[in-house]
Amino acid sequence: MDWVTRSQIVPEYFNAAYNAKVGEIVGPVKSNYGYHIIKVEGKKVYNSVEDIENDSKLMASLKDEIKNNKLYKWYMNYSKDFSYAIKYEPLIYEDRIEKAKTLEDKMDIEKKLYDAIRSNPNAPELWKISYLGLVKELDSTLPEMVELSTLISKYKNSEYINMTDKQISDKIDALESELSNIKDEKVKDKKTALKKDLENLYYAKIMYPELFTKPIDIEATKKYEEGLKTKEFNILKEMYMKNKDMDTLIRLYQLNPDDPQISFEYNYTYYQYIKQYISSQPKDVIQPELEKMLRAFEKIIDTTNDEKIKAESQKAVDEIKTTLKNMMGDNN
Question: What's the pTM?
Answer without folding.
Answer: 0.64
